Amino acid sequence: MAHTLETRPTEVMSTLDDPNVRMMVELRDLHKIYESGENAVHALRGLNVDVPEGQYIAIMGASGSGKSTLLNILGALDVPTQGSYHLASQLTSKLSRDELAALRNKYIGFIFQNFNLLARSTALENVELPMVYAGVPTRKRHQSALAALEKVDLADRAGHLPSQMSGGQQQRVAIARSLVNNPRVLLADEPTGNLDTHTSSEIMKILHELHEIEKLTIILVTHDPGVASFTERVIVLRDGQIIADQPTPNRGGPDIPDVRALSIADSGT
Amino acid sequence: MFALWIECFKMGLRELWRHRLRSFLTMIGMIMGVSVVIICVSVVQGVKDSLISDIRKAGKNMMFVFSKDTKKVSGRAIGGSSLSRADAEVIERECEAIALAAGMQAGRFPVASDTDSSNVPVTGSTHKYLTIRNWGVAEGTNLLPFDIVTSRRVCLIGQTTVRKLFGDENPINRMVRIGQLSFKVVGVLEPKGVNPLGMDEDDAIIVPLPIMLRDLMGIQEPRGLICSATSDHDVHRAVGEIKDLLRQRHKLGETDEDDFKVTTLKEKEDQAREVSNQMTLLMFFLALVSLMVGGVGIMNIMLVAVTERTREIGIRMAIGASTKMVNRQFLVEAAVISSAGGSVGIVLGVLGSAYIANQIGVVPLMSPTIVLIAFTFSAGVGVLFGLLPARRAAALNPIEALRHD
After folding, report:
1. What architecture does CATH give domain A23-117+183-268?
2. In chain B, which residues have their Cβ closer than 8 Å to the Cβ of A118?
3. pTM above 0.80, yes or no
4. Using an 8 Å Cβ cutoff, are A152 and A202 in contact?
């Protein structure tokens, strides 16, 4: 299986065929190979993806499909083994560690499944943190952080520690944190994975508003078709390759494939 | 640039405060290490100082000449002294480096007052004896030259002996019986305390030398001379002069051995200094061990703390902290905690050595060098082992750091 490498790069399949739209994300022949002793794991096998500015897109796949690897590369947390990644027309593979850190700081907002808040810092301090690294003066930082918390309806919890808040509240703090530096792309890794249905829909509503009102580019990784259906476009990964790239049903696309079924079918073969 | 440093500083302080227990535990290693070093070294230095000043207190630039029993000595009774009172006079007159010299004869006699009796060390010497010994009279008068020449039966009496013989009563002008003879007490000596050999110097009676020799001991000449050099630096020269003069006076040939022996307190002082230097060294190594143990403690907690915070470092890097910023934050944390611990250690060390030195009755001697060494060492260990693991974590791939539990 790992040796059938002769697959040609998948052709570009963009659902938005308007050539005038500026591309926020451009992936070309992207490969990621994890070397671990004898057996190399080919996590991504030549991806070509374009994400126009302002698009709300879901990346789906069963565990082991390479979707987390793709998200890490998109988030400039990891670098591809081969191929190129342009974020807002910047070629990321040419950047140094610290330049990547600056890129993450200013261009990318992260939302994680497990929130990843600093446990011993208050909500306000957590939200301020990206601005600290961006060199924003203390007073301005304070105001912006409070404003961001207000946006997610948590201004009254500014002084609370993460442990004193519910999962949904923590995720809202994380969203506020991801937004304070006005990023170009919001990356959400299973943002509702640790939340109950009610809280999940709350979070999804916030993301929807960010897309609708602020025209933010949002890339969401999930294995939940219900979550994916909120977006405009779905990319399905399997074994490091794109097996589907289509509009969601609410944009006139076909039904979203159930990746959980896919993974079961996989283990059958 | 500067603002970033301030940010790192504030962040570091906040983290330390949030992890109060951990910060405190780290500081304990530092506090112990630094304070133990300071206590050990300054107390031992204080002991050394007091030892040497005790020796100095025994007498001003004092030296002794003792008769050596050599059967070669001709013209004198075997068992008699090779020295004489005339030797003392000539030494004082001829030797440039000698200020004072007196004959000295010690013995031990039963001494009785009207009410009590005791066995007391008795010294026969001249009125110069007290000056040479750097000793004063608390009450009454010293022996007078007149007393020596006329062999008056008077004596000086030490504080301990007063207590033994007279209790709380005033002994001046009272009579004591030494051996078979009665003496009048004319003076009470100042307290001198215990000498470096552990003997109570205040248990003493001093009588004029002629009486001591003729009436109490029944001998011709004293077995010892006591001299003082003109100054501290002249002691060595004085010894040489005494040797030359006595060899000449005793008509010793080139090949003859000295029939006397000169000892100085300088030698004793040097010995004491050497011993206490060795002691200082020993204590310093002991303290160094405690510094090491403290250092290992600091290392341990720092390593664990930073490893435990790998995920925190991952989060910080994911939202845009550069490696430099992460390093800086941990440097600040390590530096603050190390210098705080070191400072508390210095304070505790100073207080502790004052207390312990006070308990054993010496004045502690602080050495800024030692304080600096102890502080630098433990602070260095703290900073190094706070920074190294943080550097390692900051060099990780952010996702690996994020996945760390």
Report:
1. 3-Layer(aba) Sandwich (3.40)
2. 312, 315-316
3. no
4. no
